[in-house]
């Protein structure tokens, strides 16, 4: 492992977690403000799924460039550049013109894509393999923590200044995260390629996906992440709309429950990582989480305006623990299956499939909800892809 100073080693994990949280807040923030944004743009709830699809289309492109950007700039400077790009996308969404809003969503995705390959490359060099699942899970708590920030910060900003003020506030958060990483750049980026190399051709961009497709175990993990990501982003993107539209909750109350679900997801990532490292192993851990998602999907489909508030919060918190909590185990498994030097490439390749699930999941979910006339009923339909994922987990031949 590369040697770093004690101060940098102590600061690396919390800083990269904050960076991940800010990047995640940039993606989730507009979905929290969705009820007002949709009204101002005269759009239906299906537009939330289209927004998420545009974000992750950008992320799919940027993820494949991620390994090359990290090698050229280093993990910290790559993360800082990504945060600035996401902030630009948020500001562009403040222009009340549909084409510019769509472009802003895609740009947010361009910023989101390189964050995980950058952190995986760094953590794989500074972490003992026996602790991979725990450390990667701690870092990945940044994703649900971003949802917590969005759920807590966006509703008050919407009330104070409207939806566009909330988007500007999230953009400022991205800038603060980029500044927090400045002290670490000197050491953590010292292994970057200092000589200029041409940007990759199409064949090189496809190399991470081909690498994953040719690796039997990585291929299975990528397909599993494709299904789990569909469930995760459907829950995160539509929770506020479910609570305000189907259950008639206020925006502030819905945002608070979103924050609760993300907090439980963040805490669960650490717990699942520890359990996977010490007892169950990655496959059985992921199977347990998949069965938890099935249960929560069915129970969520039964919610109604008369459902007790504490019971709804408890259920969605449990849903967050499973549907949001699986990523750390997944990323640690990817890093463990390949040599350290290939961690960034393997992560980029598998994330392409993860993000593809995010791209197609929310639009399909929104379309199903529109056809059924209820977001709650659409959650029952998530059981089918989850059953397929559990079947693949059971049949996969893992070392």
What does this structure look like?
Helix 12 (216-246) packs antiparallel against helix 19 (383-395). The protein has 19 helices and no strands. It is 81% helix and 0% strand. The protein has one domain: Growth Hormone, Chain: A, CATH 1.20.1250.20. It is mostly helical. The model has no long low-confidence stretch (mean pLDDT 83). The longest helix is centred in the middle third of the chain and has 31 residues, at 216-246.
TL;DR?
This protein has 399 residues and is mostly helical. 81% of the residues lie in helices and 0% in strands.
The dominant shape is: globular
CATH topology: Growth Hormone, Chain: A
* Total DSSP helices: 19
- Could you tell me the mean pLDDT? 83
- Can you count the beta strands? 0
Compute the number of structural domains.
1
Order of helices and strands: HHHHHHHHHHHHHHHHHHH
In which range does the helix fraction lie? over 70%
Percent of sequence in beta strands = under 5%
**Low confidence ranges:** none
CATH architecture: Up-down Bundle
Rg over CA atoms, rounded to whole Å, is 20 Å
**Main sheet specs:** none
**CATH homolog superfamily:** MFS general substrate transporter like domains
Instruction: Give the termini distance in whole angstroms.
Output: 24 Å
Structural class determined from secondary elements: mainly alpha
CATH C-level class is Mainly Alpha
